[in-house]
Design brief:
- The chain contains no helices and nine strands.
- It has 91 residues and is mainly beta.
- It has a single domain (7-90), classed as Sandwich (Jelly Rolls), CATH 2.60.120.
- Strands 1, 3, 6, 7 and 9 form a five-stranded antiparallel sheet that branches. A four-stranded antiparallel sheet has the order 2-8-4-5, with no helix packed on it.
- Strand 4 and strand 5 (48-54) form a beta hairpin.
- The protein has strands at 7-11, 15-16, 22-31, 36-42, 48-54, 59-63, 69-71, 75-81, 83-90.
- Helix content is 0%, strand content 59%.
Length: 91
């Protein structure tokens, strides 16, 4: 039985995901022509919560264990280097 419903949101580049307080459960990233980097902060200008590096031209799926990573303000994409597509799964 699930504790809460999981939602998905496709994002285009940097900026707020507009989720409010949320737990990140999974990230799916498609990288472009170079090595990719994705940095997620707790709101705009907040603390870095997730910082990931990826190989180029591949689809990557990062599962967050247990209850996920808590963002108390909002999931904010501060860096999306060579990220062609990004989908977050949160609750």
């Amino acid at each position: 039985m699930s504790n809460s419903d999981v939602r998905a949101k496709r994002l285009a580049g940097t900026g707020a995901a507009s989720t409010g307080r949320a737990r990140l459960r999974q990230v799916q990233v498609l990288t472009g022509g170079g090595a990719g980097r994705l940095t997620l902060t707790d709101g705009n200008g907040g603390a870095t919560v997730v910082d990931l590096d990826f190989t180029q031209s591949q689809t990557h799926s990062v599962n967050i264990p247990d209850e996920g990573v808590l963002f108390t303000s909002d999931i904010h994409v501060s860096v999306a280097t060579n990220v062609t597509a990004l989908t977050i799964f949160y609750s």
